[in-house]
Write a structure and sequence with these properties.
alpha/beta
C-alpha cells in the first residue's frame, strides 16, 4: 500500500499540490486523473521521489519516502517498477536484453537464470519469439508490453505507470490496460496509473482519484464515476459528445 498524507508542492511560489491525501491499495489499479495542469504529473513524480514535497508524507507500507536517506531511497527503488509514457527501451539492446537490464543491475542471479527470468516475463505479457529483435523492429504496442515485462522483472511491490496508453490505438490500449490490471491482481502489486484515457478509467478504474487545481476533488470507482454529481468531475468526464450521451441515458 502507498499512502500520501497532506502533500503540498509549489514551484516559484505557485502552488501545484495543496494538501493531497490518498490511499493506493494493494492488488488494485489505482488511477490518478485530471485535466492538464491539475497536478497529477507532479503528484506522480513526488510519489516516485523525483520531486520532494514541502509538506507531507509519502508512505510505502509505512516507510516515509520523504524522510529517507539516499541509501534507503535506493533500496526502496528496487521494489518499484516503472512504466513510462514512452516505452523508454534501449534502442541498441534486443528485446531480451532490455528485459534483463534491471536483473543485470540489481540481482545476484547468474546469467543463465537472468535470461530464463526475462523470458518468463516476456511470456507473461504474451510475447514470444521476439527475443532477438530490437525495439525498432516491433510495434508500439509490443514495445509497451516489453516495457511491462521489464518493469516486473524484479518482482516489484509497487508499479507506477505514467500515461501507459499514450500513442496507442484504442484496441491496443485495451490490451495494455487489461494486462496491467491482470498483473496487478495476480501479484498483489500496488499499481498507480497516471492517465487521462477515459477508456482506462471506465475499464480498470478500481480506485480513482480526480485532481483539480492541485486538490483532491473526488474519489471513487469506475462504477461511481459516471454517476457523480461533482461538477468539476462531470466537466472533465463528459467533455466528449459521446460521453454526454452516455450521461443522458444514465439520467433517464
Amino acid at each position: 500500500m502507498i499512502e500520501i498524507q497532506h502533500i503540498s508542492k509549489s514551484f516559484d511560489g505557485r502552488q501545484i499540490l495543496n494538501d493531497i491525501n490518498a490511499v493506493f491499495e494493494n492488488g488494485k489499479t489505482n488511477l490518478i486523473i485530471g485535466q492538464s495542469g491539475s497536478g497529477k504529473t507532479v503528484l506522480m513524480k513526488s510519489i516516485v521521489g523525483l520531486f520532494v514535497p514541502e509538506k507531507g508524507k509519502i508512505l510505502y507500507d509505512g516507510r516515509d519516502l520523504v524522510a529517507m536517506t539516499k541509501d534507503q531511497k535506493r533500496l526502496l527503488r528496487r521494489e518499484i517498477g516503472m512504466l513510462f509514457q514512452s516505452a523508454a527501451l534501449f534502442d541498441s539492446q534486443t528485446v531480451l536484453e532490455n528485459v534483463m537490464f534491471p536483473l543485470d543491475v540489481f540481482s545476484t542471479m547468474n546469467y543463465k537464470d537472468r535470461r530464463a527470468k526475462a523470458r518468463r516475463c516476456l511470456d507473461r505479457v504474451n510475447l514470444r519469439d521476439v527475443d532477438k529483435l530490437y525495439p525498432s523492429e516491433i510495434s508500439g504496442g509490443m514495445q509497451k508490453r516489453v516495457a511491462i515485462a521489464r518493469a516486473i522483472a524484479l518482482n516489484p511491490k509497487y508499479l507506477l505507470c505514467d500515461e501507459p496508453n499514450s500513442g496507442l490505438d484504442p484496441k491496443t490500449s485495451l490490451v495494455i490496460d487489461h494486462l496491467i490490471h491482470d498483473i496487478t491482481s495476480e501479484y498483489g502489486i500496488t499499481t498507480i496509473i497516471n492517465t487521462h484515457d477515459m477508456n482506462s478509467v471506465l475499464g480498470i478504474g478500481e480506485n480513482i482519484i480526480f485532481l483539480a487545481d492541485g486538490k483532491e476533488e473526488w474519489r471513487g470507482t469506475k462504477d461511481e464515476v459516471l454517476k457523480s454529481d461533482n461538477q468539476k468531475l462531470s466537466d472533465f468526464i463528459f467533455a466528449s459528445d459521446l460521453l454526454k450521451k452516455v450521461k443522458e441515458r444514465l439520467v433517464e
